[in-house]
Amino acid sequence: MHRDGQADLAPLPPVGRTFVAGFESTYLPMWHVDELDTTGHAAHPQRDIDEVLAAGVRHLRYPLRWQRINPAPGRYDWSETDRALGHLREHGAVPIVDLVHHTSYPDWLTDGFRDRGFADAYVTYAEAVARRYPWLPAYTLFNEPFATLFLAGHEALWPPYDRGVEGFTRLLCSVLPAVTEAARCWARLLPDARHVWVDTGEHHSGTGPGEAHARMANDRRHVVLDLVLGHDLDPERPFLSQLIAAGGERLLHLPALRVDVLGLDYYCHSEWFYDESGARAPSPRPIGLAEVLQQYGDRYGLPMMLSETNIRGLPSDRASWLRYTVEQYELALSRGLPLHGYCWFPQVDSCDWDSLLARPAGRADPVGVVSHGRGGSRRESTFTQVWQAAAAGAPVHDLPAYRFQSPCRQQLAGFLPAMAHWPWQEALPEDHVPPVHVPIEAKEPVVIDVPADPDLVVLSHLRWVWVWQRPQQLVSRLAAARADRGVKTWFVEEPVSGDVPVPQLRREDHGNVVRVWLVVPRAEGRPEFLCFDDPAADDYGRLLAEMLAGEGRPAAPDVWLYTPMALDTARALRPGRVIYDVMDDLAAFLGASPALRRRQGELLRTADIVFTGGRSLHRSVADRRTHDIHCFPSGVDTAHFTRARTLRRPHDRPVAGYVGVIDERLDLDLLRGLSSELPDWTIRMVGPVTKIDPSTVPRAANLHYAGLTPYEELPRELAGFDVALMPFALNEATRSISPTKTLEYLVAGLPVISTRVPDVVADYSDIVHFADTAAGFADACREVVQQSLADRDRHLRPVQHRHEWDVIAASMAALIDKIEPMPPVCPAETTAG
Questions:
Q1: Per its UniProt entry, which superkingdom is the organism in (predicted)?
Q2: What is the mean pLDDT of residues 166-170?
Q3: Averaged pLDDT for residues 518-541
């Protein structure tokens, strides 16, 4: 064991405050998903890695997905791992690979850590990794073995759901001999690589009847590392004696393995307190990180690393916890402790730790350096900037000390005395949580109730990762409700051209939604983006059906269409129910297929239920469909857009802004004239330019184009507006629109000026200001900016609740549930005339 000296730890960080990054990867065997998928890292690993490297951080704790690498006994797929590790190596990064993170083992080990085949399978996998990547500089063979096996074997929280000291001992007897054998293998094959043993850094204290339990727990926290090191194995120890009595005597004779660096994971809840009222974590009397590091350093004499820390809270809370842990880390360094790295973990918000991974709901856990947003995007915050500064070497006294907000303020009460010398400041406005005002007339919380059996397959002309619109708002909510019953939702997009020899399906997991698209071979004259009915995509429906069948999904899915051009694809799936959501008059759009209106008529006749996105759309199709047709104008996520009110700040000159797609539906001449009429204003256009030549959009010094902006960032954009614009052209493409942005603007607290779009006039004539010309828009801007927000809110309140996306999705789900689905078609029936 290496107990001192920096040279023999190269290329790991030298003693000092070097930052290390890490990515959460835990696999949930019961649900067949892992954190790299739910956080979106698996889809874009190079992007996330490059962001870390751009911050100057070179060392990364990086997970290997055993269940992906070794999907069946004796079979290996290295493609994903080759790409990720190759990228790290090419860019001069130093990966500390993590072979098993919590319950991340293959599905074919059906009894998990207790499986009779676990040891052989694990050692074989570990050796295969070592032989595949002999250049690796550092490794963790089994992350947090004490914490993982305690939760899986003592507390029955994770599979195989064993319980008590006997269950814990069973898992230790299955896993620890395998880990020591794998360690010998790696020491032989990669003698220069460094073994980083990672486990929880705990401390327990108590008074009265809690003192005895604290003594036992302080002995228990060391037992796993002591067993593999052969350290202090006195059979009379408080907890070790219990293990021996439970059948663990053979664990006393394990061959000692080599540990080069002891990684300790420290959180506020790593310290426990016991008294007559029971157990509490975080402790009201913590000894602090520096003292915990001192205890482990004194016991083992090993080089150490703070291998994980974070706190669940707002960005400002995380910034202050980072200041505390960095300050404590530096205090430990000043005492002579050999610390080789500080890791805030994870780099990207994890998911579902609010249930300890019991439910894969895709709920973001606010702990990361950056957050993952809709469509796999990444969102930086106040904390991201603080972490970047600290990683670049900013002195601890230059890091901000934001007052903790609830619930962190209560949880960390015991830690506050150690921070008494800080120059406290209030959190930034965007990090304050505004109170939730519930009107007296508020209804009971909406619950979406859907049948458990059929999957939902959505066929859309829009892409999941593009502008967040009606399909994403509705499908994300319906998917979350169905996921609670084990049902999958598939969002199927139009095909694209790519570098493939034959048509191939691609997929990405986005929380509860699986995004699917078809890539067809490139060909001369073939555009990059195709329609569902393009001859090159003839096999789309068949490939989808085969994919669903191969996944073991139930037959006769619910199929939801946003474009009639996908009707043949839908039929190939043999749907149980067909839902058509008419969100736009697509036949009126620029470049629309001549066949679109005919296919729409066919879909209106054959769909089981039809929804329409506004009054005008409803009227336009009602003469072709008289039954089961329901009007649901687009809605709003009030909680999301209300944030704009708290983010508003003074700015130098007034801003009139637009958020949305910039295409043929906008009156570009009006926009050009408005910029001339308001030379002392900024006109800000937020959204992608599409379907029109970008050179045709007006240009002026006060006319700014922000481009595509993630949905999560829209409240911040709206906070910078003084007036919201809807400068739509009045043409065939806008005759039937019901703009989603109307309510989003109003909920954000903005006055709205619009051309006379029929649905806006019909629904919002007492709230929205209307104008017809550039001069009229300019006059309206100067007028409405002075109007009362309270008056607007008074008119808004009666319509706001029924237009909530949650309410709309629930109402749609209830209507679908009333339809009796068609039974699955058996093979014999498919061949009958």
A1: Bacteria
A2: 97
A3: 92
Dist. CA 622–CA 627, nearest whole Å: 9
* Category of 5 on φ-ψ map: left (φ > 0), alpha (ψ -120 to 50) or beta: left
Classified as helix, coil or strand, 34 is strand
Is residue 660 located within the same domain as residue 586? no
For residues 313-335, average pLDDT:
96
Tell whether 524 and 645 lie within a shared domain. no
Per-residue pLDDT, 4: 40
| CATH number for the domain that contains residue 332 | 3.20.20.80
Please tell me the total count of domains within the chain.
3
Q: What does the H/E/C string look like for 194-258?
A: EEEEEEECCEEEECCCHHHHHHHHHHHCCHHHHHHHCCCCCCCCCCHHHHHHHHHHHHHHCCCCC
**CA 767 – CA 755 distance, rounded (Å):** 13
Separation between Cα atoms, residue 334 and residue 822, nearest integer Å = 72
CA distance 243 to 226: 13
Helix (H/G/I), strand (E/B), else coil: 515: strand
What CATH code is carried by the domain that includes residue 496? Answer: 3.40.50.2000
Does 653 lie in the same domain as 504?
Answer: no
The model's pLDDT over 45-99, given as tens digits with 9 standing for 90+, comes to 999 999 999 999 999 999 999 999 999 999 999 999 999 999 999 999 999 999 9
93 and 74 co-located in one domain: yes
pLDDT at 591: 59
Pairing of strands 33-34, 59-63: unpaired
DSSP SS3 for 319:
helix
With respect to residue 753, please indicate whether it lies within any of the assigned structural domains.
yes
**Predicted model pTM:** 0.57
Burial of 471 (0-12, 13-18, 19+ CB in 10 A): buried
**Whether residues 598 and 716 fall in one domain:** no
The mean pLDDT of 773-782, rounded to a whole number, is 96
Q: Which of 354, 375, 394 is the last residue of a domain?
A: 394
In a domain, 733, yes or no: yes
Is there a single domain that holds both residue 753 and residue 681? yes
- Over residues 208-212, the mean pLDDT reads 94
Helices vs. strands in the chain: H and E counts, helices first: 29, 32
366 part of a folded domain: yes
CB atoms within 10 A of CB 672: 17
Q: Which residues pair with 204 in a beta bridge?
A: 272
Q: Is pLDDT above 50 for 349?
A: yes
| Cα 596 from Cα 803, distance rounded (Å) | 29
* Cα angle 219-225-228, degrees, rounded to a multiple of 5: 130
> How far is Cα 271 from Cα 749, in angstroms, rounded to an integer?
44
Confidence of residue 305 (pLDDT cuts 50, 70, 90): very high
Yes or no: say if 559 and 578 are a contact pair by the CB < 8 Å rule: yes
Within a 10 A sphere around the Cβ of 333, how many other Cβ atoms?
16
64 and 79 assigned to the same domain: yes
Domain interval for residue 655: 638-803
Specify the amino acid at residue 492: V
Question: Domain check: are 502 and 647 in the same one?
Answer: no
Q: Is residue 435 part of a domain?
A: no
Domain end call among 631, 665, 682: 631
Neighbours of 127 (CB within 10 A): 16
